[in-house]
Amino acid sequence: xxxxxxxxxxxxxxxxxxxxxxxxxxxxxxxxxxxxxxxxxxxxxxxxxxxxxxxxxxxxxxxxxxxxxxxxxxxxxxxxxxxxxxxxxxxxxxxxxxxxxxxxxxxxxxxxxxxxxxxxxxxxxxxxxxxxxxxxxxxxxxx
Length: 143
Description:
By secondary structure, this protein is mainly α. It has a domain at 59-142: Tetratricopeptide repeat domain (Serine Threonine Protein Phosphatase 5, Tetratricopeptide repeat), CATH 1.25.40.10. It has helices at 2-13, 22-25, 59-75, 78-91, 96-108, 112-125, 132-142.
């Protein structure tokens, strides 16, 4: 019995005969065009803190952003406030208050184009607002 085991081991360790068709084993070494960066999708971001934010309709998050933006605005940090108001508009594009506040913050940072755009969007959303005439005058003044 022991002899049979040794015989089986000897057969397993013996060199295998070469493959029938050597052409199958050879790799195609013809020059090919190098893959471009656009042909591959970007890898998923492992660190979620640097991954781009995926925006969807979220009115609660929009209101939170407006609240934080108002705090920044009261402190005189107009650039930070404008960033928060811009975030609020991404969470809810129909948040008229966010557009109005973005216009005010942009005006404080002397970004006339952004202020005009934000005020215009506000007027589109809230054309019947009490302050619509005043905002319209601001838009005309920013041109």
